[in-house]
Amino acid sequence: MSGPPEILKRIPKVEKVIGWALKDEDLQDQSHARLLKAARLVLSELRAEILERRLLAVPADQIVLEMVKKKTQDLNQARFKPLINATGVVLHTNLGRAPLAWEALERVRLTAQSYSNLEYDHLTGRRADRLKPVEELLVELTGSESALAVNNNAAALFLLMASLAKDRKVIVSRGELVEIGGSFRLSDIIEAAGVTLVEVGSTNQTRIDDYRRAATLDHVALILKVHASNFRQIGYASQVEIEELSALARAVNLPLVVDLGSGSLVDLEPLGINETTVKKALSAGADVVSFSGDKLLGGPQAGIIAGKRPIISQLKSHPLTRVARLDKMSLAALEATLLLAQDQDEGKKKIPVWRALHLTIEELKTAAIRLKRFLGPFPGLKLSVVPVDGQAGGGAAPESPLPSFAVAIESLVNNVSLLEEKLRRQKTPVVARISHDQLLLDVRTISPDEYGPLKTSLTAAWGEVVGSPVKVSPFMGL
Questions:
Q1: What is d(CA 357, CA 346) in angstroms, rounded to the nearest whole number?
Q2: What CATH code is carried by the domain that includes residue 163?
Q3: Domain CATH number, residue 378
Q4: Last residue of a domain, one of 294, 329, 347
Q5: Of the candidates 113, 248, 105, which has an alpha carbon nearest to the alpha carbon of residue 173?
Q6: How many CB atoms lie under 10 A from the CB of residue 46?
Q7: How far is residue 374's CA from residue 441's CA, in Å, rounded to a whole number?
Q8: Strand partners of residue 406
Q9: Which of 32, 192, 237, 261 can bridge 227 by disulfide, Cβ–Cβ 3.0-4.6 Å?
Q10: What distances in angstroms separate CA 395 from CA 90, 91, 150, 261, 342, one per listed residue?
Q11: How far apart are the first and last CA of the chain?
Q12: Please, are residues 340 and 355 in contact by the beta-carbon 8 Å criterion?
């Protein structure tokens, strides 16, 4: 029996494979560079499989060509693709957080496909401020004196620290030095701005006297309060509220900066979500607040800073503001979202995040029943409607579950873990979760427009699990 080295000699040369590809009708519209990349990848994979003894012979020439065709198709596909979020987590960071409202999408399309008045006043013929339309809306919605938008909330915090506290000290509670997504620690971001942190209190207990003592140190620039993103301390734990910190900040003549993280414009307490609104934080005495645009606001990725005019003016003149500025498409989406937010009733209908959060339990149960009926019976699967708990996500209210309903799928022949994997690998991926041997499709995060693609993906995925095409009942309507 010949070993791997002998078999490797039989792998066709890349030039030969390219020759086959150039003669194939299905590949006539492909560039030489794309075919070359596909051929090299296929041949590399063949070598690896032979060396690992997962392949004991070189495939026939036609099979190699088909592999190149498939690889070319894969290379032509965009890596970023839409998927169906069936997890019930409204602001799922790994899934892109907030989906945009139709009005925001349309404004992005119009802005992207043509020239615009981004930095041009067409009425006067003079240069204009690209941020002015967004700033005016933010001032109206937050009650602030002025506002600024940059490309994310980490950039907003970095800009605040670099502009207001570089080479000086910032007082912050030890219990608020959180770690944010991607293993980035807040302390690292702040210190990278040239700031020295003065940590006060303990992990679980920080009192106003801790801040008061630290405020007597030399070279203190400001007091910082940070939203406890993604976690809550319970039991013997306390942090100082904004009102009390504000009184101290005024007494010692220091600005109070509050990083709200998610930053809601609407009161979510009736939904059981205890998140301080931007307007409430400013009313409580914060000199400036920062928050995200793509979380509870429901817009594009952005970092928004709102507060006292002198501070915002100082930020606007800092060189980092240019580094972190928003592009025209993000500005267009943000403006459109803020326009919808002017009328909270309209916002709850048209901003997807607001709409998902405000769905009633009756509406969710009805939606789950409709989805179950739409999917219809599957041979080998049992579908039922069950109550579940979802989350707001995105660092908002981690201790507050969102009661919802889901279509629960149970397999009558095996566990559902393989079905969950196959669903993620479909042309339209579906991301769901498993609980108590049930695959759950939480309707809070599934749009009725996605029912059709969801059924297509589920049909194909279950067919792959059982090893044969699945026949399902025809669509019976909603």
A1: 14
A2: 3.40.640.10
A3: 3.90.1150.180
A4: 347
A5: 248
A6: 20
A7: 13
A8: 386, 442
A9: 261
A10: 11, 8, 19, 7, 24
A11: 61
A12: no
SS3 readout for 417-475: HHHHHHHHCCCCCEECEEECCEEEEEHHHCCHHHHHHHHHHHHHHHHHHHCCCCCCCCC
Q: Within this chain, do residues 9 and 111 fall inside the same structural domain, yes or no?
A: no
Count CA atoms within 13 Å of residue 29 on its CB side. Answer: 3
Identify residue 365 by its one-letter amino acid code.
K
The range of the structural domain enclosing residue 410 comes to: 84-91+357-466
Domain count, the chain: 3
Between the alpha carbon of residue 286 and those of residues 173, 224, 245, the distances in Å are 16, 10, 9
- Alpha-carbon distances of 339 from 81, 136, 139, rounded to whole Å: 28, 11, 12
**Does position 29 have pLDDT exceeding 60, yes or no?**
yes
pLDDT tens column, 44-91: 999 999 888 888 888 899 999 999 999 998 888 878 889 999 999 999
Task: Indicate whether 474 belongs to any domain.
Answer: no
Tokens encoding 188: 């690292």
Q: Choose the final residue of a domain: 303, 328, 347.
A: 347
Encode pLDDT of 133-164 as tens digits. Answer: 999 999 999 999 999 999 999 999 999 999 99
Q: What is the DSSP string of 123-152?
A: TTTEE--TTHHHHHHHHHHH--SEEEEES-
Distance of CA 212 to the CA centre of its chain: 38
Beta pairing class for 288-292 and 256-261: parallel
Burial (Cβ within 10 Å: 0-12, 13-18, ≥19) of residue 407:
buried
Q: Is residue 477 part of a domain?
A: no
Tokens for 31?
Answer: 């560039």
Tell me if 306 sits within 8 A of 278, measured CB to CB. Answer: yes
Amino acid at 213: R
